[in-house]
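NADH-ubiquinone oxidoreductase chain 4
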Amino acid sequence: MLKILIATMTLVPMALLLKPKTLYQTMISYTFILATMSLTLLKQDLFLKPMSNMYFNLDSISAPLLTLSYWLLPLMIIASQHMLTSEPLQRQRAFLMTIMLLQTTISLTFLASSLTLMYVMFEATLIPTLILITRWGQQAERLTAGTYFIMYTMTTSMPLLMATLFLNNTSNTPTLFFMNTQPTNQWTSLLLWLACLTAFLAKMPIYGLHLWLPKAHVEAPIAGSMVLAAILLKLGGYGMIRMMQILPTTKTDMFMPFMILSLWGAILANLTCLQQTDLKSLIAYSSISHMGLVIAAIMIQTHWAVAGAMALMIAHGFTSSMLFCLANITYERTHTRILMLTRGFHNILPMMTTWWLLANLMNIAIPPSMNFTGELLIVSSLFNWCPTTIIMLGVSMLITATYSLHMFLSTQTGKTSSNLNTNPTHTREHLLMTMHITPLVLISMKPELIL
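Tokens:
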């Protein structure tokens, strides 16, 4: 665990010291080595292993998410290569350094065993992400997007800080896994729950606190979009699962407002997807709807539901990242993200159409993919909790299928815009897609690694 962590930290100065000729080759090969090493974390025997130490710990909740973040690290560099070629060398170095810094803070968040360290690192991920959005974003609105991003996440995480300090004072240990918090007063426990959940709900984001997400996604560069959709949204889910372990046990009925909001929010976000003209914005809203299901599942607090939430988070990480890569490949060819103007790509780049189809089918959660496993577990546990939810989930899935196919048809079929001088696809791009879809297919064959 520390081997990987220290190796990630050393990549930060390495981005500044490498020779220009070998910059990308070395960084990509090193991050691939790290990704391969992180696969061993999935197969630890967690019952034989003692608590690692005071500060770091890895268990079956954090290991899959940590591996996901390391797997996407080389893919982010590969996806950004075309964008970076036009930049001066110093900025390319700064970009790689920012990504490595972000990866370090993310892995420290997943590894933290003390609540305070987890909070500090959870907040520290904001800084590199903000730098990515505001410095390498495409349009002038990126500053507004950065402001939204910071305001939403910072405002909602203040209560979390207060709750962290309170928990550290009342329990005798700072470690997440041994905290025994049983406040006598019912109001105390309710306020604790609310304080801890708001920060993570805004990060997920739940509908209503979601306005920063489409803005941040649309303005961020491709690496920023990938890391936002695939990993930073999962920090919210991870934090919620962690908090469920240590906060005083509460009846699920207390969470009724949040669960109703998340399920309705999923439907509303899906309906918003149907009227989006911007490709990146559409994919961003689809993330909100999927995270709505995850929030509802985590709040049921049963084993099935949490397993389903984990499966859907991992599967969504790969799927949404793949969709953003495809949108970026289209954007690099046409220099527009408007759906009407990117049509007819099936005639020009037929192989890309295959990747689009696969990504959209994964987004719909077609069996036997991991997305389907996650959604099935979530649907069955929600139905067990309250049969009426099946209506909302059914509507949500119907609209998901509709907008996914709409996105596929409007980008791939039809007549192309006349003045399009398109480069053929590169091996780099096909490698990128293969590296997204392979883990999804392999995990579907052995799901107990992440459940």
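The chain has a mean pLDDT of 91.
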